[in-house]
Amino acid sequence: MSKYTTFRTGKTASFLISKKTFWSIIVLTVITAVLFIISTGVGSVRIQPLDVIKVFFGSGEQTHSIIVQTLRLPRMIVAVLAGSALAVSGAILQGMIRNPLASPDIIGITGGATLGAVSFFFFLGDRVSIQWLPVCAIIGAFVSTFLIYVLAWKHGVSPLRMVMIGIGMAAAYSSISYMLMISGPIILANKALTFMTGSIYGVSWVKDVWTLMPWVLILMPIALLLAREVNVQELGQEIAVGVGSAVQRNRFLLLMISVALAGAAVAIGGAISFIGLMAPHIARKLVGPAFGGVLPVSALIGALILLLADLAARSLFSPLDIPAGVFTAAIGAPFFIYLLYRNRQT
């Protein structure tokens, strides 16, 4: 019996994934759905999972329907979308750069988006609508990546050079963000600090869910279609050129997809750290190195991590609502140290 399953998306495109990957996706989808339902019922007013399901199907109590549909469902959807976007962004970066420590927050993409958001608070916060905040964050992500890409260019972009410059730029973006934060009024500092920590508290359908959803629904299928290019990039530039890959063009395209996903997620959820680092590593442990499996599994793991972090943020210190980024950092920082130790001789 074959260990692989073929999925066809048209006359010219198909995906061959292992049975292990297929079942990993099924199991993770079920776990994410269960956690989604349980987490939706947790809050100051506890709602049983069965009652949450009734609300989803339009037969729940009116009070439960208002709480779930207005307050909690947008938050859960944003957690799934932002977590999966950050995870896929990190998976692309790790494969393209061939560095297990690469992630949007470590090489400066998240830092650029954060600086864009803090600049919005500092220069435009009292002049224009808050709905422009995601635009400024996404612009910040793209501008910062453009600077990193230009500075890393020398007869093409070297992955190692990009990582080193990205780490330096990330430190610079963080310093500028903190400088703006402490030089402004206290209300600015509170808003900026919450954003820099990462929180999905108070999200809404129009301003947040419908802003983030198109980025994820459009870019993730494109990333999956380019999974073979990520596999080729992992083999190294010489081999990639030898098999006929347009290395610089594909590297730039993959980078733009990664930046767009990370920038959109940060624009809505703030600078939630380490999901883009952890999720791809866990995915590779589950399904192996092939990116046709790593990308969807990373997306599900990223969604699961942020759902768990948000659930902990709302329930462990009730009635306080701690930013979810505190919990992802608490898990991610030791994980990063472990990766540094494991790769100390490479």
TrEMBL record:
Report how it sits in the membrane.
Answer: Multi-pass membrane protein
**Which Pfam families does the record cross-reference, listed alphabetically?**
FecCD
Q: Which residues form the signal peptide?
A: none
Q: Keywords assigned by UniProt? A: Cell membrane, Membrane, Transmembrane, Transmembrane helix, Transport
Query: Which Gene3D superfamilies does UniProt cross-reference here?
Result: ABC transporter involved in vitamin B12 uptake, BtuC
Where does it live in the cell? Cell membrane
SUPFAM superfamilies with a match to the protein in the record: ABC transporter involved in vitamin B12 uptake, BtuC
Its transmembrane ranges are 21-42, 76-94, 106-124, 130-151, 163-189, 209-227, 252-278, 290-308, 320-341
What protein family does this chain belong to?
Answer: Belongs to the binding-protein-dependent transport system permease family. FecCD subfamily.
Q: What is this protein called?
A: Iron ABC transporter permease
